[in-house]
């Protein structure tokens, strides 16, 4: 890595021209208001690493809302402000930029949300999680592009180290334990020695964090390209057992996660699928404990519950002679994530085949005729319509009919036989 303290060139080369232009203008406007403006956090880290990241976080020494309002006049877009926190968000075209007023934080007790006070960039950077996330780039015209690296973040980037800024960091905010593992595994870095020691020492601080905040951290983990690495490290360091003693981050999970990504590519597997795989070996009671502690969203909770329900039917699904309508009856109504989770985990090739047939074929089967069509064919409105539609469904599923014409003939045959 070449040492330059001015990153204007990197900014220009690595960020889209529209964002570069925006920051340039923003720096000028801030200066005209007598304020100082900085680009901070993850985007600075990723600029130095040469990784794409277009999430601009700007910090203002002064008043973020005042600056964002002025910029919204120049660049028409949508502005949202939070006067309580003195922050603002500006959106235009597909871009979104966050503005925050430089602040320092104090924690009334471990795990509580911080009390914030307007402050300098120095204090704002010091309140952050890791040195590699605590760098800034000055955007005012006087020294546009200057790197502000007060806590040796750049050195840690070069040495591939994740280091906290002060020894109370994990006590103040134990979500940083999960964040640290995430960065370590994403970037292929190491937790620095003292940081690692304090992380282990402060594991109990995870108990001070609400289930909602841990769920958010897990959602972030599952956005990573290889979340299994983070879970593996979390198991190794005792972080997983703090969440639930039965959760694992082993090679079985690694295989399943890899297979899940293949199945949903180019999209990442949804949260519900990852969670259904991760909790696959938990008992119903243990799953319910996690669902309620993490306050999992309805669809994710459903994926976990459906997954256990399907697991209970796996033995029947190992019968080779099941008809398509049998398979349909066994599986319809369950969340697709739960079906995929079982398809990826079952050791029976036949059950796997049935689950795949449901997912890729039966799930989409629908008769061509609807209730109105049946009335048009001369069937009297009433409960028999539902009954005939169900029989048609079955005929479709089992491949007895494949077109609308086939269905009409079949229905006519049933009616004629009745008469
Ligand atoms: N931050 C922090 N402590 C936290 C959460 C966030 O100090 N518990 C700070 C870090 O400086 C971080 C910045 O706030 O860089 C923005 O947070 P976030 O968007 O979560 O992190 P990024 O680094 O921007 O993004 P990512 O983790 O996806 O790379």
Question: What do these coordinates show?
Answer:
This protein is α+β, with helices and mostly antiparallel strands and 419 residues long. The chain has four domains: 1-159, Beta Polymerase, domain 2 (2-Layer Sandwich); 160-249, Hydrophobic Seed Protein (Orthogonal Bundle), CATH 1.10.110; 268-363; 371-418, no CATH class. It has helices at 8-14, 17-32, 42-49, 64-74, 121-126, 153-158, 169-172, 175-187, 193-201, 211-221, 227-236, 239-243, 251-264, 271-278, 284-294, 298-313, 324-331, 336-345, 349-360, 371-376, 383-397, 404-418; strands at 36-40, 56-61, 78-82, 87-92, 95-101, 103-106, 115-118, 136-138, 147-148, 161-162, 190-191. It has a seven-stranded mixed beta sheet. The protein has a two-stranded antiparallel sheet with strand order 6-7. A two-stranded parallel ribbon has the order 10-11. The chain is elongated. The structure holds cytidine-5'-triphosphate. Residues 41-42, 55, 57, 128-129, 133-134, 173, 175-176, 179 line the site of cytidine-5'-triphosphate.
User: For this structure, what is the CATH class of the largest domain?
Assistant: Alpha Beta
SS strand fraction: 5-15%
Global outline: elongated
- What small molecules accompany the polymer chains? cytidine-5'-triphosphate
Structural class: alpha+beta
CATH fold title of the largest domain: Beta Polymerase, domain 2
Helix content: 40-55%
Number of domains: 4
**Cα radius of gyration in angstroms:** 28 Å
Give the rounded overall mean pLDDT: 94
Main sheet summary = 7 strands, mixed
């Amino acid at each position: 890595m070449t040492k330059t303290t001015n990153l204007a060139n990197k900014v220009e080369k690595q960020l889209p021209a529209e964002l570069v232009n925006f920051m340039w203008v923003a720096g000028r406007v801030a200066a005209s208001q007598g304020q100082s403006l900085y680009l901070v956090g993850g985007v600075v880290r990723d600029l130095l690493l040469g990784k794409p990241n277009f999430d601009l976080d700007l910090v203002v020494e002064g008043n973020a809302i005042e600056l964002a309002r002025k910029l919204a006049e120049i660049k028409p877009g949508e502005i949202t402000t939070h006067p309580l926190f003195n922050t603002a968000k500006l959106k235009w075209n597909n871009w979104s930029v966050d503005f925050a007023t430089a602040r320092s934080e104090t924690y009334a007790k471990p795990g509580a949300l911080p009390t914030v006070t307007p402050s300098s960039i120095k204090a704002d950077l010091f309140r952050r999680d890791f040195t590699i996330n605590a760098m800034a780039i000055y955007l005012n015209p006087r020294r546009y592009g200057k790197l502000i690296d007060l806590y040796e973040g750049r050195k840690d980037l070069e040495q591939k180290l994740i280091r906290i800024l002060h020894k109370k960091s994990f006590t103040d905010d134990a979500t940083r334990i999960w964040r640290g593992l995430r960065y370590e595994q994403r970037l292929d870095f190491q937790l620095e020695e003292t940081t690692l020691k304090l992380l282990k020492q402060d594991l109990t601080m995870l108990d001070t964090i609400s289930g909602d905040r841990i769920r958010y951290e897990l959602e972030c983990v599952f956005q990573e390209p290889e979340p299994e690495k983070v879970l593996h490290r979390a198991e190794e360091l005792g972080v997983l057992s703090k969440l639930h003693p039965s959760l694992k981050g082993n090679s079985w999970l690694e295989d399943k996660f890899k297979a899940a990504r293949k199945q949903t590519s180019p999209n990442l597997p949804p949260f519900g699928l990852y969670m259904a795989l991760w909790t696959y070996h938990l008992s119903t009671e243990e799953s319910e404990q996690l669902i309620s502690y993490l306050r999992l969203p309805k669809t994710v909770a459903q994926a976990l519950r459906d997954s256990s329900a399907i697991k209970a039917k796996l033995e029947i699904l190992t019968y080779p002679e099941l008809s398509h309508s049998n398979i349909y009856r066994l599986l319809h109504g369950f969340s697709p994530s739960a079906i995929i989770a079982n398809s990826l985990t079952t050791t029976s090739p036949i059950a796997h085949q049935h689950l795949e047939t449901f997912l890729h074929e039966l799930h989409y089967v629908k008769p061509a005729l609807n209730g109105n069509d049946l009335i048009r064919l001369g069937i009297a409105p009433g409960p028999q319509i539902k009954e005939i539609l169900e029989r048609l469904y079955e005929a479709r599923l089992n491949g007895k009919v494949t077109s609308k014409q086939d269905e009409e003939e079949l229905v006519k045959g049933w009616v004629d036989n009745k008469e």
